[in-house]
Specification:
With 519 residues, this protein is an alpha/beta fold. It has three domains: 5-238 and 361-421, 3-Layer(bba) Sandwich (FAD/NAD(P)-binding domain); 240-352, Succinate dehydrogenase/fumarate reductase flavoprotein, catalytic domain (Flavocytochrome C3, Chain A, domain 1), CATH 3.90.700; 435-508, Fumarate reductase/succinate dehydrogenase flavoprotein-like, C-terminal domain (Methane Monooxygenase Hydroxylase, Chain G, domain 1, Up-down Bundle), CATH 1.20.58.100. It is 36% helix and 17% strand. It has 13 helices and 18 strands. The strands form five sheets. Strands 1, 2, 7, 8, 9, 10 and 17 form a seven-stranded mixed β-sheet that branches. Helix 11 (435-452) packs parallel to helix 13 and helix 12 packs antiparallel against helix 13. The longest helix is centred in the last third of the chain and has 24 residues, at 459-482. It starts with a strand and ends in an 11-residue tail after the last helix.
């Protein structure tokens, strides 16, 4: 392989934000490269999204949607970002997801089928049964795979951002800029600089730093950690949303039981089948914002000394409707002996979504020249202290589009870096790290974050967690210096740094609000 590779625009990640950005750029005639660390490019946080994406309800308006977003976000939202999403979002869903790639959203006799989810005043969510993310990911990736302007590389891990070298021009006061990334070819173990005029981070979430999470294995906070090491501003990391209803079973991962289930009428109940949300949110009941529902479930579990509560679909939704509307959830639960049409479904909260991340402006620009970020890795301020249901996919569409639009306007002024600026990655002629040790360290991080920096936080626990994380980071840094880079080791390095960022932000933010709950 060459000493380095080059492209006009490098997109790191292939979920909804990266996919939309890549497609918009490619359609405008710009050659781009999209890389994903998974072997299957569809594999992303987007792929696992069940409920749906915000569109337009009957008698809806941008003002009403903005109201719902701000109420859910405890008023901590960036109003400019909220207004952009509310005004542009539905139009972009129609133009990109419906018209351009043809996502097969569910229909009823009157057109698109609209659902209601927690925190929404009216039904405005469109969906593809209970696998909306899968339908969106599949359509976007298929469009990219057949596009002549797209190079799609699977099985490549971005281990670090590639920054221009300040030592080449000591007289310049300009800060270093991002000129691409170092990519690890998982098949060969080779790390190659991939240079670009503009780079878009679209790496998704960070739920895997917690013991229980809805996120897939790759959601380790890679993009946040890389941007932080490069010097980008990171904000609002204390706001990690816990989804209230994930399946609870000793042998099952915390797979999501979509908010759309409660939107269709299901109730949260105790082991005797008695609903309890009227004691915590009498106005919204089971469709209160997620932070409220999660804390309510946590309180019920503490009072009763139990590891979970239950969702009751069978009493409130006809069996035929359950199987039609939620076929994938039905099948997953049945694998563990739980029949949605007859049984109470055991659920408890799990880490779900990062409201904070790499700070960006309204055009997805970070504080580093040449680096943009879109989707969950970025923080636009849209979500404030708690994300409204189904805004994540819509945010990915809006800021994926806006990042592409910015690059289209400014790419002609950008130059590829000089070869002298491109430093090779430090020697990879080193031994491989012990994978068992990597796993053990990762498990300790996850347990520590779950116990001390989870749904409910207090000062002593946060201080203890931060002290232990610093020790763990030093251990991980030593491993990285002495061993060959791998996806496994890179993920551990990123996870411990992201865990520190979350814990530090939570400790410094003494007033609990939204999904950052301080005792």
């Amino acid at each position: 392989m060459a000493n380095y590779l080059e492209t006009e625009v490098l997109v790191i990640g292939c979920g909804i934000a990266g996919g939309v950005a890549a497609l918009q750029l490619a359609d405008s005639g710009i050659p781009i490269t999209v890389i994903t660390r998974t072997q299957e490019p569809q594999e992303s946080n987007t792929y696992y999204a069940q409920g749906g994406i915000i569109y337009e309800g009957h008698d809806d308006s941008p003002e009403l949607l903005a109201e719902d977003v701000i109420r859910a976000g405890a008023g901590q939202n960036n109003s400019r970002s909220v207004n952009i999403l509310a005004k542009q979002g539905p139009t972009l869903v129609r133009e990109i997801l419906l018209d351009r790639v043809g996502v097969p959203f569910d229909q009823n006799g009157a057109g698109l089928s609209l659902a209601r989810e927690g925190g929404h005043s009216i039904p405005r969510i469109i969906h593809a049964a209970d696998a909306t993310g899968k339908a969106i990911s599949t359509a976007l990736v298929e469009a990219l795979q057949c596009h002549p302007n797209v190079t799609l590389l699977s099985g490549y891990t971005a281990v670090d951002l590639l920054m221009s070298d300040r030592h080449l021009d000591q007289t310049s006061a300009r800060p270093p800029r991002c000129i691409g990334a170092y990519l690890l070819d998982q098949a060969t173990g080779e790390v190659v600089p991939y240079v670009a005029k503009q780079t878009i981070l679209a790496t998704g979430g960070l739920g895997q730093v917690f013991w229980r999470t809805t996120n897939p294995l790759g959601a380790r906070g890679d993009g946040v950690a890389m941007a932080h090491r490069a010097g980008a501003q990171i904000i609002d990391m204390e706001y990690v949303q816990f989804h209230p209803t994930t399946f609870y079973h000793p042998q099952a991962w915390a797979f999501l039981i979509s908010e759309a289930v409660r939107g269709a009428g299901a109730r949260l109940v105790d082991a005797a089948g008695e609903p309890f949300m009227q004691r915590y949110a009498p106005e919204w009941l089971d469709l209160a914002p997620r932070d409220i529902v999660s804390r309510s479930i946590h309180q019920e579990m503490m009072i009763r000394g139990v590891p979970n509560v239950y969702l009751d679909l069978a009493t409130y939704i006809p069996p035929r409707e359950i199987r039609r509307r939620f076929p994938n959830i039905y099948a997953q639960c049945l694998n563990f002996g739980v029949d949605l049409t007859r049984d109470l479904v055991p659920v408890s909260p799990a880490a779900h979504y990062a409201c904070g991340g790499v700070a960006v402006d309204i055009w997805s620009q970070t504080t580093i020249k040449g680096l943009l970020a879109a989707g969950e890795v970025a923080c636009t301020g849209l979500h404030g202290a708690n994300r409204l249901a189904s805004t994540s996919l819509l945010e990915g569409v809006v800021w994926g589009y806006r990042s592409a639009h910015y690059i289209q306007r400014h790419l002609s002024r950008s130059l590829l870096p000089r070869s002298a600026e491109i430093r090779p990655y430090p020697s990879v002629d080193l031994p491989l790290a012990d994978s068992e040790q990597i796993d053990q360290l990762m498990q300790e991080i996850k347990c520590l974050m779950w116990q001390q920096v989870g749904l409910v936080r207090e000062t002593t626990g946060l201080e203890q967690a931060l002290a232990r994380l610093e020790t763990l980071r030093l251990t991980v840094d030593a491993l990285v210096r002495r061993h060959r880079p791998t996806d496994h080791l890179s993920g551990l390095r990123n996870a411990v740094q992201v865990a520190q960022l979350i814990t530090t932000a939570a400790l410094h933010s003494e007033v609990g609000v939204g999904c950052h709950y301080r005792l």
